[in-house]
Amino acid sequence: MIEKAARKWTLFRQGVGKLSLATFVLGLAFGLFGRSCLHQPIYIEQRASKLVIFNNTTDTLNFTIMQRRAARFMKWKPCDHPAQCGGRGIPPGRSGSMPYELIYQWYPGAEVVVYWWHLVPDAMAKNGYRLNGPYEELSNTPVKAIFGSD
Prior knowledge:
Layout: H1 2-33, E1 42-46, E2 50-55, E3 62-67, H2 68-71, E4 95-99, E5 111-121, E6 129-140
């Protein structure tokens, strides 16, 4: 009887151990990547002094950020050649940032629009690149920002 109970306890512990290992691996993955799963093309993180954009795509990501209300009145066009993008492209799997004070019409606590796009090489295009996007993501900014930190 005791041997049977001990065998059941051992099987239970082994099952819980496997469950715990799977839970640990999933927890570690979500801890490392936060909300930036592979199916989300970009992930935006608000920090004390800047917005950080994580590129989860397989292509270089170009972006611009402006305050949401001001964006309604802006006439802008995404850069359509790497030479025109000012070196602000974010390579695949990397991150880029923009300090709040450089965001057009930003004020503390403002909602901002992150416009992002890819440039796809295309021999048939006028300048050699085809625009994939722009897409937009909304993000809030902190009410209290600390300039020049982190």
